[in-house]
Amino acid sequence: QVQLVESGGGLVQPGGSLTLSCEASGFAFSGVEMSWYRQGPGKEREFVAQISENSDFTHYQEYLKGRVFISRNNARHMLYLQLNNLKPEDTGVYYCKTETGVWGQGTRVTVSS
Which of 36, 64, 66, 112 is most buried (most C-beta within 10 Å)? Predict the structure, then answer.
């Protein structure tokens, strides 16, 4: 059974950092491109970042470049998203996704003082 489980969300003050994790199971993780998306309150889900199977290619939402960093550990079947200098507009639910369209359940990030 293909499964993605995100974790690492929480409440953080503006300017803070978080690292989100996505644990993958039930498929050949090392052979699949992976992505992060997010959905803010009252907003549509949007692309955040993408990483190739062996990490040699990454792609970011243009206005998030320099504040987010996607990485993966194929041996551990883990995908990560590091969020830096967080802003209130970064609040939302963050999802990981396989290139084949499988989504996790999301982890909530709230940026507030």
Answer: 36
- Nearest C-alpha neighbor of 96 from the set 36, 38, 45: 36
pLDDT 10s digits, 74-101: 999 999 999 999 999 999 999 999 999 9
Q: Residue 64: left if φ>0, alpha if ψ -120 to 50, beta else—which one? A: alpha
Compute the radius of gyration of the chain from its Cα atoms: 13
DSSP notation for 55-84: SS-EEE-GGGBTTEEEEEEGGGTEEEEEE-
Query: Is-contact 87 30, C-beta < 8 A?
Result: no
